[in-house]
Amino acid sequence: MRLNTKRFISAILITSFFIYSIVIYTTGTAVDKGKDYITEQSKKGRQLFQNKNCIACHQIYGLGGFMGPDLTNVISSPGKGAIYVKAFLQNGTLRMPNLNLTEEEKDEIVAFLTYTDKTGVSPVKKFKINYDGTVNWKGRDEKGN
Ligand code: HEC
Question: Could you tell me the distance, in angstroms and rounded to a whole number, from the CA of residue 21 to the centre of ligand 1?
């Protein structure tokens, strides 16, 4: 290969590298879709969620204990929602302990779960892999699948 051709190819590669780097570092990604739901109340709810160790039995984004169900989208799941969550917190069940939360604390937990609900979908059941390896999830259908 002639020296000029080599230089030409190198120049193209180096320029492409810089353009690619600039594009990668300047394209914003919406990291936290739930940021509008971060309030004092939801922060307290998160703290409570940690203190009461809900994660020992439940999952958020599929991570946690597996005794109870994933709570990421419990607020928007069909047939569930804030009142449903509060009902569980009110008395517990045979398998879930009654954590004796006050009315205010229950609202804080609901605020935290409303926030997690906006941040993503878990478990992801419908997704599409793009040509570049990134993944788009489509949310849930009306049946919650
Ligand atoms: C000892 C384990 C345990 C702990 C700790 C626990 N849970 Fe549960 N929870 C369960 C189980 C098990 C269920 C499923 C209902 C059943 O089988 O009785 C459940 C059900 C629920 C549900 C209903 C979910 C659905 O999709 O139907 C909610 C909401 C919930 N728990 C919230 C919480 C929150 C918030 C905390 C912490 C404050 C918590 N739980 C702590 C075991 C637990």
Answer: 45
Tell me: the pLDDT tens digits for 34-61? 889 999 999 999 999 999 999 999 999 9
Would the pLDDT of 124 be above 90? no
53 with 3, same domain: the answer is: no
Within this chain, do residues 60 and 22 fall inside the same structural domain, yes or no?
no
Nearest atom in ligand 1 to the alpha carbon of residue 56 is 5
Q: Which residues contact 67 (CB under 8 A, 6 or more apart)?
A: 56, 57, 58, 95
Calculate how far, in angstroms, residue 119's C-alpha sits from the geometric centre of ligand 1: 20
* Residue 103 located in a structural domain: yes
- Domain with 67, as residue range(s), is 35-119
Cβ(87) – ligand 1 distance below 6 Å: no
